[in-house]
Amino acid sequence: MEREKGVVLVVYKKPSRNPRYLVLNRKKNWEGWELPKGHLEKDDYEHTARLELSEEAGIEAIEELESTEQVLEWSFEDDDGQTIKREYKAFIVKVGEGAVTDTSANPHDEHERGHFFNYEDAKSLLTHQNQKEILDALHETITR
């Protein structure tokens, strides 16, 4: 079994007392809503987190970047029938209140749009259960 590493980001801003979370509307390979994520670049998780947020959402100004113990895991079969296991380390990313998404410069054209939602709406939009679980766990950390 081949293993691929990467990052998944729980990006939030706090315009009031309740955080708003970034969720992206995916259009490449499958359609649905997801957290920003991507393959590990240069064997550097923090660099990858910053790169993915910039590429996927057009956001470069980060106020805080925190590594967590959470890992997003899933497996799938590639076109050759080989099982691929992905293990993406989760980060909490705080951005400024004025942060807005711009998916138009994404070099891989993965997402149609992205928005910041309150916790309940963000969770209800996410397509995959494992991402809902990551959001749940990190929402608890963010709102403590």
Automatic annotation (TrEMBL):
Q: Is-annotated flag, keyword Hydrolase?
A: yes
Q: Which Pfam families match?
A: NUDIX
Record key words, sorted: Hydrolase
Ranges for the Nudix hydrolase domain? Answer: 2-139
Query: Do you know which InterPro entries this protein is assigned to?
Result: NUDIX_hydrolase-like_dom_sf (IPR015797), NUDIX_hydrolase_dom (IPR000086), Nudix_hydrolase_domain (IPR051325)
Q: Kinase: is it a keyword of this entry?
A: no
One Gene Ontology term of the molecular function aspect: hydrolase activity
Taxonomy, superkingdom: Archaea
Protein name in UniProt:
NUDIX family hydrolase
- Give the originating organism: Candidatus Nanohalococcus occultus
Taxonomic placement: Archaea, Candidatus Nanohalarchaeota, Candidatus Nanohalarchaeota incertae sedis, Candidatus Nanohalococcus
